[in-house]
Amino acid sequence: MKYKYVIIGAGLSGITIAERIANELNEKVLIIEKRPHIGGNVYDSYNEDNILIQNYGPHIFHTNEKQVYDYLSNFTEWIPYEHKVLSSVDGKLVPMPICIDTLNELYDLDLDEEGMRNWIEKEKVPIKEIKSSEDVVLANAGRDIYEKLFKNYTEKQWGTSAKNLDSSVISRIPFRFNHDTRYFEDKYQGIPKDGYTKMCEKMLESDNIKIKLNTDYKNIIDDIEYDTLIYTGPIDYFYDFKYGKLLYRSLKFITETYDEDSYQEVAVVNYPNDYDFTRITEFKKLTFQDLKNKTTIMKEYPGFEDEPCYPYPTQEYLDKFQNYKKDMDKEENIIFLGRLAQYKYYNMDLIVKNALDAFEDKIKV
Ligand code: FAD
Ligand code: UDP
Fold it and tell me: Nearest C-alpha to atom 13 of ligand 2 is from which residue?
């Protein structure tokens, strides 16, 4: 078998670059995917009660990158959706991220912006150099907020203390001195109208694209000739673990369906201090699916056993990745893309942007 381009992984990285090669260059491409479906972690599907489930956890598209929004809009319309998250603490449901309303509801206060600034000024812990994710919260909001909303959630999510995690993890969450209770502030926010899988199918529509599912690339790659390989799987596996195993955090996703119109107030409720799961997502609240007397929820149980979802940003693994990175930089006909290969906690928008950039800079030239 001979293909000019072979792509490992039919996640959003692989699909985006396949689409560009097939439609802009009019070249043939083979995608090899080990799971039985396309989409990687953005895959969604209808369950037996006809509710659209995001099988690998809640996915909200949000970006300030017009180029990415415009590109994906070629393949989907959008349900306008602004994500709201509540956190279950001390018997209350308070808005996440931290804003004026969070403090007022959590501590029965009546602060305005200046009041919040004064409150934080008293609470925050002076930290000279922010090194860890724990430092981020202590420096921005103080110890009580850290212990109520972040400490245990983070330990559950990562299986280690926020002390050991790179500051970039919790820096994903803003601290706001206003009443904005949205999870994201980006200009473009939404959910693909017919779901992520349908969007991905449209991206893959070209006859130039062949997809082989249920196949670990290592089982067939020696029989395929190619000029360029695009790899989006775990990087340690690619190099046969030559510098040791990299850790990836995974999640077990458990769904439950109830004969009710509604299960909870908002699409996602976080449970920092109770239960073994981190959060509950109610899908109808994300997709606005109009269905009476049925609703499906999902609980996320973190671990290491299931599909790799997150690179593991402790210093030990970030350093270990650098060994692989040196080898990656030397490769001439291999392009590495995505969360697993680049070992970076990317959201969907940067995944698409990186794939578009790689196409322009490394393939089209
Ligand atoms: P993946 O989707 O992991 O794709 C890689 C593909 O490679 C997989 O399909 C895998 O099966 C395949 N593969 C691996 N090894 C092999 C092999 N040996 N042979 C063949 N194929 C292989 N982003 C947002 O922007 N907004 C959100 O709200 C959001 N929520 C998220 C919630 C959760 C729980 C998670 C886990 C992620 C979330 N993300 C979100 C991030 C988003 O899922 C990723 O940015 C995106 O899916 C990464 O795409 P990818 O192609 O790099 O990786
Ligand atoms: N986090 C937390 N409490 C929360 C929400 C998030 O401690 O209620 C921390 C946790 O460490 C998490 C990180 O902030 O991994 C980033 O949160 P985000 O919602 O971006 O995580 P994701 O949706 O990627 O799982």
Answer: 170
Report which protein residue has its CA nearest ligand 2's atom 20: 172
Q: Is 341 in the pocket of ligand 2 (CB under 6 A)?
A: no
Angle between helices 348-358 and 66-73 (to 10 degrees): 90
Closest CA to ligand 1's atom 43: 41
Chain Cα centroid distance, residue 35: 18
Kindly list the domain boundaries of the chain, sorted by start residue: 2-38+204-243+312-363, 85-171
Average pLDDT, the chain: 98
Question: Taking a C-beta distance cutoff of 8 angstroms, is the pair 115, 101 a contact?
Answer: no
Q: What is the pLDDT of residues 41-73, one digit of tens each?
A: 999 999 999 999 999 999 999 999 999 999 999
pTM: 0.98
Give per-residue pLDDT as tens, 281-338: 999 999 999 999 999 999 999 999 999 999 999 999 999 999 999 999 999 999 999 9
56 CA from centroid of ligand 1 (Å): 9
- Does residue 3 have its Cβ closer than 6 Å to ligand 2? no
pLDDT at 365 over 90: no
Q: What average pLDDT does range 239-245 have in this prediction?
A: 98
Task: Indicate the class that CATH gives domain 2-38+204-243+312-363.
Answer: alpha beta
